[in-house]
Design goal:
This protein is 55% helix and 14% strand. By secondary structure, the chain is an alpha/beta fold. It comes from Gorilla gorilla gorilla (Western lowland gorilla). Its main location: cytoplasm.
Length: 281
């Protein structure tokens, strides 16, 4: 789904005052019924992550952490089964999984002889049954499963979706009988920063030569696209020549402005591929 900047801004504006919950996503779908659920979820997640980055520092002051921890302790004393941490995260407008991390770190600092390592914290967040306090383990679990933008569960889902679309792209390339090298093959040859697929024989798409294809299982907004250009796409262009980026959940139309310079954007696999010999229907 390709959106104009104005259409994207209208959706983003609707997200300013809503919490990052599945209920909010359902309301967003009702407000924009012509947009796919996947596109709205991707925009929803990206906009919320921007918000968290802007407000991250205020939640990590020693005063804020101590205040959250004392409120957690007071809450579970009153009712340990209630979603104390989840409600606290929603109240202060912070991601539930990140709130769970803060409180878990503070708890372990108080109850363990040595400060907890990052790997220990990550392991406990992935499997809350490892947390040496049953009430806190349940509170952390509630935060993890109710967070639709952050946390180990979301990370696993994003990784699986990304892999699924890379497999889809591979199958489409094979279906079109296009020879390619994938990321693993390229790294075996010594390349460090590589696109998902290098075409061994370049093709043309909409009059533009394509040497490589990158799969992105997300929506291409200004922030993410400019970061990808800087960190990935221009590096690919310098090393391999012009290429194609597929944003499977759409992108802002105005971002497709580097075609003449060698980076083409699409929201699906192109159907009008031209090889050296013939056009593929």
């Amino acid at each position: 789904m390709i959106l104009t900047k104005a259409q994207y801004d209208e959706i983003a504006q609707c997200l300013v005052s809503v919490p990052p919950t599945r209920q909010s996503l359902r309301k967003l779908k009702q407000r924009f019924p012509s947009q796919s659920q996947a596109t709205l979820l991707s925009i929803f997640s990206q906009e919320y992550q921007k918000h968290i980055k802007r407000t991250h520092a205020k939640h990590h002051t020693s005063e804020a952490i101590e205040s959250y921890y004392q409120r957690y302790l007071n809450g579970v004393v009153k009712n340990g089964a209630a979603p104390v941490l989840l409600d606290l995260a929603n109240e202060v407008d912070y991601a539930p999984s990140l709130m769970a991390r803060l409180i878990l770190e503070r708890f372990l600092q108080e109850h363990e002889e040595t400060p907890p390592s990052k790997s220990v914290i990550n392991s406990m967040l992935r499997d809350p049954s490892q947390i040496p306090d049953g009430v806190l383990a349940n509170q952390v679990y509630q935060c993890i499963v109710n967070d639709c933008c952050y946390g180990p569960l979301v990370d696993c889902i994003k990784h699986a979706i990304g892999h699924e679309h890379e497999v889809l792209l591979r199958d489409l390339l094979l279906e079109k009988n296009l020879s390619f090298l994938d990321e693993d093959q390229l790294r075996a040859k010594g390349y460090d920063k590589t696109p998902d697929f290098i075409l061994q024989v370049p093709v043309a798409v909409e009059g533009h030569i394509i040497h490589w294809i990158e799969s992105k299982a997300s929506f291409g907004d200004e922030c993410s696209h400019h970061a990808y250009l800087h960190d990935q796409f221009w590096s690919y262009w310098n090393r391999f020549g012009p290429g194609l980026v597929i944003y499977w959940y759409g992108f802002i139309q105005e971002l497709d402005c580097n075609r003449e310079r060698g980076i083409l954007l699409k929201a699906c696999f192109p159907t009008n591929i031209v090889t050296l010999c013939h056009s593929i229907a």
